[in-house]
Specification:
single chain; Arc Repressor Mutant, subunit A; elongated; Rossmann fold; 217 residues; five-stranded parallel beta sheet; 2 domains; alpha/beta
């Protein structure tokens, strides 16, 4: 079950989103808000998996909402709603911490698909925006990659796996969701060219053993 909250100031579209969420048994509706200000006050009680947020709200924008709420909604992923996919606001929202977006006017099936995709670790967005985001982050990602070509966070996850911790225990220790741990593991397997946890840990332990040997020679 994927829990969803909605932040949308346009009543007609807000009601449409409510119907779209309620019609799918995979989703459960947590909270519905007509402004960012209201959501900032109450969404911490919902703790939804996914927050559907309109970018252009009346007062405080959806971008500002994402930026201000990220610290206390650490396990929530933000899916922005917008009328224009090339809008500069979409790019700014993604830079602020949103994980994807849907266009207003998307079909019910497209909205469902975007929510499921995001919950599974994807990032629903157009190729145009994706290219801009990749261009922005590629340099930083290369800088953060350490031994075995893994990022610092991936190394943390792999190290904790090597100590026998379960996904839930790792999520608690790193203050991330179990689903995020699972996605990190998928990326680790892909980067290490292995098929499962056992192969990944063998490669990790072999690397550490060789590094220790070389450090004494």
């Amino acid at each position: 079950m994927i829990s969803v909250s909605i932040v949308e100031d346009h009543e007609q579209y807000r009601n449409l989103l409510v119907k779209v969420i309620k019609v799918n048994s995979l989703f459960t509706l947590k909270g519905v808000y007509s402004s960012a200000e209201e959501a900032l006050q109450k969404m911490h009680l919902d703790k939804p998996d996914i927050a559907l947020v309109d970018i252009k709200l009346q007062k405080l924008s959806g971008i500002d909402f994402v930026r201000q709420s990220k610290s206390y909604l650490a396990f929530t992923q933000f899916l922005m709603c917008t009328s224009y996919q090339n809008d500069e606001n979409v790019f700014n929202a993604l830079k602020s911490g949103a994980s994807g977006y849907i266009l207003k006017g998307s079909s019910m099936e497209e909205i469902h698909s975007a929510i499921i995709d995001l919950s599974d670790g994807g990032a629903p967005m157009s190729p145009y925006i994706a290219k801009r985001v990749i261009g922005l982050l590629s340099g930083k990602q290369h800088e953060k990659q350490g031994k075995l070509g893994l990022t610092e966070r991936e190394l943390e996850v792999l190290s904790l796996l090597s100590k026998g911790l379960l996904y839930k225990e790792i999520s608690d220790q790193l203050s991330i969701s179990p689903n995020t741990v699972k996605n990190h593991c998928k990326n680790i397997y892909k980067r290490l060219h292995v098929q499962n946890k056992v192969e990944a840990l063998n490669k990790f332990n072999h690397y550490n053993m060789n590094t220790s040997v070389y450090s004494f020679t």
